[in-house]
């Protein structure tokens, strides 16, 4: 796709984004733009290079590489321009207040098609499950659908992704491709990083959901308040007025999201165990292979049987149902297909029943809150003892390690501490921090050996 520069300027102006100024040498007043990137290694002849202030370095430090690869001109902020000035490089530069926001607008215009119904889900835990369930509901209603998130793009298009919420160039190209293939229904995981870094800007959302908030990503966010503010950006900045928000009202921050949404004239549907919830869960029965959920919707008592493990799945399933209803699917048809939902890979997933009455599950839990919910939920589905194999990632919020050790000690009967992606940290240090609050745990650094040992120690009913 080739576009004249003046057309790009015209489109950007239509978004009423940052004021910008041209500086540098403009030998060609209306160059043809053949592409764009924020990674200098992806620049080709005729490309625009977005020099963005990154987590470790400002992208302006890679200007020379971008120019060598054929960058036509640069879009950056004032600090980036100052770096370029010191390099004494003659290049055409557009200076904007927020290059990330500008990049999103640029990408939305370049890839100018999006599916009709696009719902976003944010929260510490549950994003992946809710998005998957939304996609499954749509598919079971005979609609073309896809979900975008931690497990990549799934549905009509299958694609792996480097991040839960991809950068705006990749995200808008995916949405364009989905629209081109006739997909009108997409669910997207909105991570706090993605929201904070404007990756989701210019996506035309028709509904959004908030699952919960607990300790996570404090290696990136200043604190939990900053983390919450990033999440709320979905509702007070990205979702247009008049659209629908689905809120887990059992979460303490659910009322904050509800208030923000109502102030934006958004319709709010609350889900939870609280009696005032619009979709009120009032009873659950648990079995080794699933559960029965009873709830009220619009004053009517409903009952569904699902092959899903975990008490928390009731909220996930009903939030997904509310989202699909919010964007136009008939409520009676949505409720009728809930019993057909399948577990999400890696989310309280039954790996195998290895002996009579012995089940092995894998779960993505990597925060204290998620670990507590996983273990307490599994207790409801088993008559025997509960064993756990887990570790903690390196270079990520070390404060949660002792908390996770304490939770494992409280809820599990047998604990095996192992390595889990230590990155640049000494693995023994990570294990030591976890073990402070679960001293009776067995320490087995090799992950495969830890899993085998844990399984070999299981007995009937465990």
List the helices and strands and how they pair.
Blueprint: E1 3-4, H1 5-14, E2 20-23, E3 32-33, E4 35-37, E5 47-51, H2 63-68, E6 71-76, H3 78-87, E7 93-96, H4 99-110, E8 117-122, H5 127-140, E9 145-149, E10 152-155, H6 168-180, E11 185-189, H7 192-196, E12 207-210, H8 224-238, E13 244-248, H9 254-263, E14 267-272, E15 279-287, E16 290-297, E17 300-306, H10 313-326, H11 331-337, E18 349-355, E19 358-362, H12 368-380, E20 387-390, H13 399-411, E21 414-417, H14 427-435, E22 442-443, H15 447-456
Parallel strand pairs: 4-5, 5-6, 6-7, 8-11, 8-12, 9-11, 12-13, 13-14, 14-15, 20-21, 21-22
Antiparallel strand pairs: 1-3, 2-7, 9-10, 15-16, 16-17, 18-19
Helix pairs in contact: 4-6, 5-10, 12-13, 13-14
Largest sheet: 10 strands, mixed
Low-confidence stretches: none
Structural class: alpha/beta
Shape: globular
